[in-house]
Hints:
single chain; 32% helix; binds methionine sulfoxide; 151 residues; alpha+beta
Amino acid sequence: MQVDYPTLAKTIAALTEGETDKVALMATLACELHHADDRFDWTGFYRVVAPELLKIGPYQGGHGCLVIPFSRGVCGTAARTGQVQLVADVDEFPGHIACASSTRSEIVLPVFDAAGTVIAVLDIDSNQPAAFDEVDARELSAILAAVFGRG
Ligand code: SME
């Protein structure tokens, strides 16, 4: 099943309307995103818990590593740069952290609050090579901005 982003965005908007608790929002998005597309084999958040430090948040899929410094991995790179990381082949990404040996490709997006501060990253792993593209980057970024970027 391939995600229908306009419908997914409407569903998430309805489910999260009026909610401000970040854990509740992350849990809802991890669930809705994960079950929206067969490409998504691990879907979850890493939260900024201290300067230059990420800690796992709500996720769906096998266990993920608990702590990631900004200096490491695809997640750390997304948090450090504030840029979406589109990784077609994880074996080609220097310092990729493999939580599952089955992961072939990955997209990691920074999550910004209303002030424009990176508060987390959204990590989606796929067992398919080159599973993600600019459409995913654009549509997922828009969903994250709608949920976490509102004042
Ligand atoms: N692959 C990520 C680590 C998180 S596990 O995939 C859930 C990274 O390189 O930062």
